[in-house]
Amino acid sequence: MQLAELDQHLKSHGLPALLCVFGDTPLLLDDALQMVRAQARAQGIDERTRYIQDSQFDWSRLQEQGANLGLFSSVRLVELDLPEAKPGREGAEALKRYCNELPEDQILVITGPKLKQEQLKAKWFQLLQQAGPVVQANSPERRQLPAFIQQRSQRHQVTLTSDAVQLLADWFEGNLLALDQELQKLALTDLPQPLTPQAVMDAAQDQSRFTVFALQDAIVAGDLKTALKRLQRLLEEEAEVAILNWMLQRELQKIERLQQGNLGPRDLMSLGIWRNQEGAYHAFAKRISREHLARLSRLLVRLEYAFKRDSGEDFATLYVHAVVLLCAPDKEPEFISSCYA
């Protein structure tokens, strides 16, 4: 079952004795739990216990819960999170016993990460699958992301133009939690709706003058000193990483396109280069070689991995490297010797 089907399934059939939710996105896992909790309240279930499996977890607690019900409840909701979806031998045996004799006075909801192929074949998972519904709560693919953003924005009572939806998809692909937080911020503004890309960008800017877009201006001008100062300020103020990454990706794309040549006024405008910026951008394109662009492209991939997959690389070092490549590529060897030594 997909997450989009869960709410209607619960309203039509009520809570099953056992329900599993596995997925790669904490936001969507939480969505599923919120649906379950709402349905529990609708069914008059007001006692809830939550466990997180670790090396010290006592699996006998699952069986003990039924004997410890409160005075006014006949059914308890129990949530069990498996952070790595690895119950181990003891856990697998406990889940087997539980599935063979599902208690009538307890609803068990098991959550965990997206399962790998070997986990899907494991006996413990097959038993869970036979005993109750299994919900998939995974991030939408890139082509599905605009529709997801439209649905999510409606939840927060935010109306977006199609271009604004595409902008948010570019910014937040792979980070739905940050997307949801941005939609919540937009819901608090008094901007006229539907929100346009410009309105979204304006709302995303810091109140200070050291914005992502001010950094962009310094990069285009090749002003390394100013760009590094603005970057430092943005990092100190914990600027939105997704927007910063998006800006750097856009500048790379602009330079690649400019170096291909044969661009008319309409082509430049489609790239977001206005008439008063044309001279600066042509100079920008001339100071960066194709070799430097290739290195910058690889560097931005590393930034994406650091942002979306927590690769462990230091954000600040990667950003400074990118700014050096864009503003003063001839200084890159000096930067590498000082920062990566």
From TrEMBL:
GO cellular component: DNA polymerase III complex
Catalytic activity reported: DNA(n) + a 2'-deoxyribonucleoside 5'-triphosphate = DNA(n+1) + diphosphate
GO MF annotation: an example: DNA binding
GO biological process: DNA-templated DNA replication
DNA polymerase III delta N-terminal domain span: 20-137
Source species, domain of life: Bacteria
Gene3D superfamilies recorded: 1.10.8.60, 1.20.272.10, P-loop containing nucleotide triphosphate hydrolases (3.40.50.300)
Keywords carried by this UniProt record: DNA replication, DNA-directed DNA polymerase, Nucleotidyltransferase, Transferase
Domain DNA polymerase III subunit delta C-terminal: 213-327
InterPro entries: DNA_pol3_clamp-load_cplx_C, DNA_pol3_delt_C, DNA_pol3_delta_N, DNA_polIII_delta, P-loop_NTPase
EC number per UniProt: 2.7.7.7
UniProt keyword annotation of Nucleotidyltransferase present: yes
Matches recorded under NCBIfam families: holA (TIGR01128)
Family, per entry: Belongs to the DNA polymerase HolA subunit family.
Protein name: DNA polymerase III subunit delta
Gene assigned in the entry: holA
